[in-house]
Write a structure and sequence with these properties.
By secondary structure, the protein is α+β, with helices and mostly antiparallel strands. The protein contains 6 helices and 4 strands. The chain has a 4-stranded antiparallel beta sheet. It is globular. Residues about 1-20 and about 145-149 have low confidence and may be disordered.
């Protein structure tokens, strides 16, 4: 990684504070708080992919072909607002931006892995087949996340 990395510390006006698009319907309920942070069609999958490697927006877009750029941007902003993902600007404008898990984001990985394992066992009940080891595949276990220091 280049030594010219700038950490994005400025407030992103488009990033929601907390997660207003998913208000906690049951204040004080841990389940509702968890679903507000990681619920949604793509958040768990994005966390899974980012557990394996940091990625540029375009790379995430290619992996998740059915994800529209608008929805991908919204999901990443919400994950960033909840402190699970960080956006790293790698140079001057127009800068390439990478997304990666924060240290706090790694704390949700056991949940993500548990859901992946359960889904693997559930696929036969839905007459679904295991995905081939392709870009969209979520077949590899989340082992230990190595953080570059």
């Amino acid at each position: 990684m280049s030594s010219t990395i700038e950490w994005s510390t400025a407030v992103n006006k488009k990033a929601p504070a907390g997660n207003p698009s998913r208000p906690n319907p049951l204040p004080g309920c841990p389940m509702a708080a968890a679903f507000a942070a990681i619920g949604g069609k793509w958040k768990m999958t994005l966390l899974y992919w980012l557990a394996h490697e940091e990625s540029h927006f375009a790379s995430l877009r290619r992996r998740g072909t059915p994800i529209t750029p608008k929805v991908l941007a919204e999901q990443l902003r919400e994950l960033q607002a909840d402190g699970l993902v960080e956006r790293v600007v790698t140079g001057p404008v127009p800068a390439r931006v990478i997304y990666r898990l924060t240290d706090y984001g790694t704390t949700v990985l056991p949940v993500v892995e548990g859901v992946r394992v359960w889904g693997e066992a559930h696929l036969p009940r839905t007459r679904g087949e295991a995905a081939p080891d392709a870009a969209m595949g979520c077949t590899h276990a989340i082992m230990e996340v190595e953080r570059a220091g």
